[in-house]
Design a protein that fits this description.
This protein has helices spanning 2-21, 26-40, 45-81, 83-95, 100-116, 121-139, 143-154, 157-161, 168-177, 185-213, 217-220, 241-256, 262-277, 284-293, 296-313, 316-325, 332-347, 350-360, 362-365, 371-382, 392-401, 405-435. It has 436 residues and is mostly helical.
Length: 436
Amino acid sequence: MEMLSLIGIIVSLVLLVILAMKGINIIILAPVLATLVILTSGMNFVQTITGPYMTGFSNFALRFFLVFMLGSVFGKLMQDSGAASSIAHGIVKITGKESQMRVLLTLTAITALLTYGGVSLFVAVFAIMPIARPLCKELDIPWPLFMGAFIFGMATFTMTMIPGTPQIQNVIPTTYLGTTLTAAPVVGLVAAAVVIVFNTWWLNHERKNYAKKGMGYEATKGKTETIGESKVYKPEENPSLIISLIPSIVMLVSLNVFKLNIVLGLAIAIIACVVLFFKYYDNLLGTLNQGAVNVGGPILNTCAVVGFGSVVSATIGFVLFKDALIGIPGHPLISFVIGTNLLAGITGSASGGLGIAMETLAPYYKPLLNPEAMHRLASIASGGLDAMPHNGAVITTLTVLGLTHKEGYKPIFMCAVVGPLVASVVAIALAIVMYS
């Protein structure tokens, strides 16, 4: 039964990837494939669907609905006021219009600053998307390239590699290993350098491919009604650049200086938008309503895939899989990283996979490895295979950006899976030298 359960998990994951790439909505896929896992594991269907599946589904909504909703409203307020266009225009004046690559890297840097500053990975997309759309439209940058630039800044070096990052993937190991957020700083910084070089090279390579095909923004923009196009920039009709930046600055200061809860920080930023940009809204109530409505798709998609991961984690096949990880041959750091990556891939969650790895693998590996090396390698590993098509953040970001898996997953895979895996290889080699 254990083997059949494991086969069911593997088949369901393969089908999830294939069918999601073909455009079948994850809200349909998740419960259907969870049913396959349930049947092959000999579990009670009703008890599992109403138990682990709905518990995972509802717990995610319980934790993140307000963040999603307020983030969506904030993004819509920034867009409809023209503030997003003003910021985008200001960035263009700094970076210049002669280099699409410079603009893409600027968007990466802005995203990285937000996430390293403590802004939730789920919130960052709502904050930067209204800025990126007019920029990419003005410079005729293919929209999927922004997906790559965004995921590069959001889910790679600032999420798991740079010492001191406040993201949960860097926090979880401290509670199991007694380390600090700055554990193994040299390993982390070298890994960050590797992923930055690799992703920059790949984005430029892909940009040239789009240019050869004659494809720009209009041919690749996807569905814009998820949040929509921002106002066209007109200096006399838009708020100034300085005023436009104030709500985002207020949010960052609230979160990182005053250490306010993310919900409160977003609420304050929304109030700042209403106060500062009141005269720029054609229909403030309509903007607020649309911002709230826009959250429906992203939050439901993400909850569905989290529910699927909860079912997988409850199976006997998953227990068998965890036991097999410890038997992977080679240096303990290698098998530890492989195990953590696979767990993150199966659960479709960096934090979920890392938490399971710390619970199940850390007790075995802790006597064998330096805790600082374990911390940094586990954190880096959690940000590799986690970004598979069924990952909640992947689905949310694609939905918010108006792209299907077919249109937008390639840059995610290259920048958030391949790049971190390449960095992991270098990090493992360096950690073995430094901490063995």
